[in-house]
Amino acid sequence: MPFTTRALARTYASSPASDPVQQDAEAETDSAFTDADALNDKDSKAAKAKEKAMWSSGEGYIRWLRTEGARYKHVNKGQKANWLGGAVPFATNPTFRPPPPLSNDMQTLLHADVVKGTKTVGQLAEQYNVSKARIEAIRKLKAVEREFRRQDLPLQHAFQSGMESLLGARSPINKKTMSIDAVLERTEATARDLHPSTGVERDEEQRWDANIGQGGAFGNRAAQGSREGVERTVWEFRDEEMVLAERVAERAARESVKSKGGVAELVAEADAAPETPEHAHQHAQAVRKTKRESPSTTAPSGHKSPFRFVDTSGAAAKVQGKRGDRKRR
């Protein structure tokens, strides 16, 4: 174990000294080390304060981008994803390992095979090492792109190219020959097969196909969300057919109301309907409780006020009428 200079000096100082001159020299040495420690602590505090001020002003982030952050800001084209957390996108969430991104060229190639219909979705999933749910998502995405082109709406090609470069998504098409590179395509498929997320996706899909469990990320989200005990998020997946059916039902309900004379007639009928004895008793109790809790509106004795407070809610009249019926009976 290596010794520092100060440790050696203290060891030497702790040994029995026979010469007073030697003891004075040792005391001066120890004092010099103490002064050096105080200076180091002072310099350390000053450095920390300076660093804090630098980061607060924004200069620290700029300096970080010029040094360590340069490899995250400037990425070589075709380079694999260079996450801040190493092999995971978020350093504080190491369990989150999403599947490798697919380039737009790869998605177009996959969609073309789906449209051909020569292979099933399961066969394509096995060939490209992509989950069946992901293939279905690509099919929907390409349908949206086709609709955008039909309406002459712009597509964000620049954003797509930039994100593919940052995420390290490689295209299976050779840009020189503009043809599919079989070697590159096979290499990317092998890399997706070795990724840990691929095995998780396959396991979830196999469980879903075998009707085991809730289906995970590949089951019916609408059916899973309706089950008791499932916490719903702000954004929920809604099945398109279910949304369409709900809209048709709402339209039919509105037409039914219109055919019966409108909303005003229905409200009037509901108000005119006789209330049950139980409901009337609960309403009377609520009125009495409100009167007890509300501040008194009676003027002090000997004070005459030109104002008189009258209950116009009708609840008091109902209660008084029922009390009169009881007395007559």
TrEMBL record:
- The ranges of region (Disordered) come to 1-47, 195-230, 271-329
GO function terms (MF aspect): structural constituent of ribosome
Gene Ontology BP annotations: mitochondrial translation
Q: Where along the chain is composition biased (Basic and acidic residues)?
A: 195-208
Supply the Pfam families for this chain: Bot1p
**Where does this protein have compositionally biased stretches of type Polar residues?**
12-21
Recorded GO cellular component terms are:
mitochondrial small ribosomal subunit
Q: Where is the composition biased (Basic residues)?
A: 320-329
Q: What is this protein called?
A: Eukaryotic mitochondrial regulator protein-domain-containing protein
